[in-house]
Write a structure and sequence with these properties.
Length: 133
């Protein structure tokens, strides 16, 4: 979804942008901690963005960044290029939407769709919420 054919920030190529994006999405820290899930044995585990990322999510992130560049170009009247910051903002927007969707989902159905062991997730709680639900 990121190619050198796109208008890119000066000094940055598509490969470099992709590396930055992958590093952000696959970070195993609190800024990409989506939620915690509980299995049928009562064991909680953290779910990060990397656990639920899909090709569609990656496409959405790049499309959001492209839209941001187009809007910036319209607002300024000058050509705007995709930048690391635009991708970071787009990744954060996609992250927030993913968190909202997961927290609103039925745990058993979500675990099947997300590829977790069939029906193994019985509860979902927001990241950082240590209380059991």
């Amino acid at each position: 979804y990121l190619t050198d054919d796109l208008p890119l920030e000066h000094g940055v190529d598509a490969h470099a942008l992709a590396r930055v994006l992958v590093g952000d999405i696959y970070a195993q820290d609190e800024h990409r901690h989506v939620c915690d899930v509980c299995d049928e044995h009562g064991q909680w585990r953290a779910v990060h963005m990397s656990d639920v990322v899909s090709g569609a999510m990656l496409k959405n992130i790049v499309d959001r960044a492209k839209t941001r560049a187009v809007k910036a170009s319209i607002e300024t009247g000058a050509a705007a290029a995709l930048s690391v910051d635009m991708l970071a903002m787009a990744a954060q927007e996609e992250f927030r939407e993913s968190v909202d969707a997961i927290l609103d989902a039925d745990p058993v159905q979500w675990s099947r769709i997300a590829g977790f062991e069939s029906g193994s997730v019985t509860r979902i709680r927001p990241a950082g919420d240590a209380r059991t639900a």
